Amino acid sequence: MKLVVVSAGLSSPSSTRLLADRLAAATARHADVDVQVVELRDLATDIAHHMVTGFPARRLAAALDAVAAADGLIAVTPVFSASYSGLFKSFFDVIDKDSLTGKPVLVGATGGTPRHSLVTEHALRPLFSYLRAVVLPTAVYAASEDWGDEGLEGRIERAGAELARFMGASAAGTVPGARAETAPAVPDTDTAAAIAPRSLKGAVTSVDSADAFTVVPFEQQLAALRP
Amino acid sequence: MQFGIFTVGDVTTDPTNGRTPSEGERIKAMLAIAQKAEEVGLDVFATGEHHNPPFVPSSPTTMLGYIAARTENLVLSTSTTLITTNDPVKIAEDFAMLQHVADGRVDLMMGRGNTGPVYPWFGKDIREGINLAVENYALLRRLWDEDVVTWEGKFRTPLQSFTSTPRPLDGVAPFVWHGSIRSPEIAEQAAYYGDGFFHNNIFWPASHTKQMVNLYRQRYAHYGHGTPEQAIVGLGGQVFMRKNSQDAVREFRPYFDNAPVYGHGPSLEDFTEQTPLTVGSPQQVIEKTLSFREYAGDYQRQLFLIDHAGLPLKTVLEQLDMLGEEVVPVLREEFAKGRPADVPEAPTHAARVAAAKEVTVA
User: Fold this and answer.
1) Which domains does chain B have, with CATH numbers?
2) Are the beta carbons of B9 and B62 closer than 8 angstroms?
3) PANTHER family of this UniProt entry (chain A) (predicted)?
């Protein structure tokens, strides 16, 4: 199964990336997953360009495609001004609105203080609910002080196990709304992106181009308007 | 194959000197550009329709009527005519009138507008955008093709025994293109009627254009108008040329960097790599334009956007000289090579009148 990790950390090393990696490792302990990490920092200008041009540059297209094709997603953001970072939101603003439908998503956030810990509930969860993802019950918030504390590892472990379970159920078709079959394997992303089909919103999708448009036959369209 | 230009009609500040033309100057510039297009041997001039600043062309047939009187051969068209918010009765009348004024040198491209508020300004609901395009166009067709129309629909007051005047020239309505960037419903509509499909690809990567054009071609064949290769396809493209490509890049960069539609996003280099924009020598424009055929197939109409980004009129006229003298003659020759004999030319009024007579005789 394919697990994609989206990290919006900005510094290097980044505690956001650290949490993302820990969550991915915890998931991998409970399921057989191929992990691909998408670092939004590297895509920051491409994301901004997509906003003004309406189409993704190749590297961003590959990242959007990877997320769309994933069996599960881990999304981690630093807390900026009491919410997810603008970069994190921008990435999910340019993604095709249907590409997360039914996908298990584990959300996480990092911050300098534990006072922001509910950001996963009041900011991240509604965002992914809107995108019709299956947001896992356990979200993980890590404040600076948590990295030296006892509870964090347990929460990471529980969240990883949950994601593994949902990904397995999703791949087996037992989660309502999730796709039953495993998505087709994504070839080498550099070449894949250049030829990848795009949705009507310009986002790269993993849908074969022959099926990308569902056309309502014109007679039907016309008939529906008859008074 | 037809070659021409299309204009958005934007009033944009020239970033190199901070000067903004008045609406009057811009309108006069558009008229000069159209007449120059004929002078340098181009086939088509198309104007946009907009109802908000900074755009000036709200009344396309007024403008095209003037150009008709000042030209002999140029086909006058639109890019686009708003089929959603205009009354289809008025479109039928305006363009039939223009056909008579211009001796048939008229076609038009249907579109849905580039700004959401245009719907409420004309009392329409944007959520019905596609449905408006479908119903209004179905009525427009009947108004042109039938002398007396009794009609009832969802969006407009009913018509009882109504005759749209003047009747189309020679009993043949203007040819219609349907312009769409990303709505498969419009490609489907164009295919259903056997009309032309224009993909304004200027801000889009080739992969997307290919997908939309292929859909139209397949559905065109599905509705029995011919083979997919015989469908009537038009494409856009925007260019800036100088003899030496470095000069073109140097001169155009400030315009690109500041234009409302291009600026402050990707670099000129990224943008030219990913979209049809070509900034360079006439030879580079020729090569890029010829490459469109690789993903869109043999097509019928190529329109260039050249009066963009606040370029002064003098520069635009120079661009037209280069298009007419150096680019289009080569494109005509090269596009003709290997073009299958059964791929039709862009429909003209004369050809459509002849075809209509053939049907009557048979």
Assistant:
1) 2-361 (3.20.20.30)
2) no
3) FMN REDUCTASE (NADPH)
Higher pLDDT, B265 or A94: A94
Is residue B35 within 8 A of residue B70, CB to CB? The reply is yes
Sheet strands (E) in A67-204: 72-80, 83-84, 104-111, 134-135, 140-143
Enter the DSSP assignment of B74.
P
pLDDT tens by residue, B219-243: 999 999 999 999 999 999 999 999 9
A191 in contact with chain B, both atoms CB, cutoff 8 A? no
Window 60-89 of A: residues touching B by CB (8 A cutoff) are: none
| pLDDT of the residue at A173 | 61
- Residue A205 scores a pLDDT above 50: no
What is the pLDDT, as a whole number, of residue B259? Answer: 85
| Rg of chain A over all Cα atoms, to the nearest angstrom | 18
- Report the 10 Å Cβ neighbour count for B214: 19
The H or E element containing residue B208 is: helix B206-222
User: How far A119 CA sits from the closest chain B CA (Å)?
Assistant: 31
**3-state class percentages of chain B: helix first, strand second, coil last, to nearest 5:** 50, 15, 35
Do A52 and B183 count as a contact with CB atoms less than 8 A apart?
no
Q: Is the pLDDT of residue B190 over 50?
A: yes
Closest CA to B191 of B153, B233, B132: B233
Res A170 pLDDT > 80: no
- Which domains, ranges and CATH numbers included, belong to chain A? 2-223 (3.40.50.360)
Lookup result for tokens 């259903």 = B192
